[in-house]
Design a protein that fits this description.
mainly beta; Methylamine Dehydrogenase, Chain H
Amino acid sequence: MYDLATKHVFAMNGDSDSATVINAADGTVVGTIDLGGGPEFAVADGKGNVYINLEDKAETVHIDSNTLKVLHHWPLAPGKTATALAFDPQTRRLFAGCRGGQLMVVLDADTGRVITTAPIGERVDAAAYDPTQKLVFQSTGGGTIAVFHQDSADKYTLLENVVTNPGSKTMGLDLKTHRLFVPANLEGTFTILVLGQ
């Protein structure tokens, strides 16, 4: 994950429960951060804060990207097995996808307070946020993408569970076209599903 504030790349090391920080300009290693659990996905706010989901701890870790210090470990209960993560810079909300409990957990990015939760499909793996459309997406290996409308910073309405393909758990969002790209294995052939909003 690239952090605009420091121009560093944060690489997640699942086996060693750490993140390696690399200077994007020359490829040198700036440091390694002990996370205290297995990292799954990370986002940055562009202002010196990095947030990382720890899959085995059901936590989101808050890091100062300038000092490389862990500032907080925020629990995601009632969510467990945290994987997916997306961020809204306007409302300062984090959207954590949790496989345990099949929940989206919405956090305050400044305090770590759990704002609300909402049910999603099984085996969530990717999340995205579209600031123009005010939509949150949670893509699951069960073959659905849960689409929520952000009514306000603290209220989210499920609009649809879009059917994709079993096992199609990863996802990318193009903010210019507002399209989702989801890899799929259809009848033994690798395919990219393109979904318009």
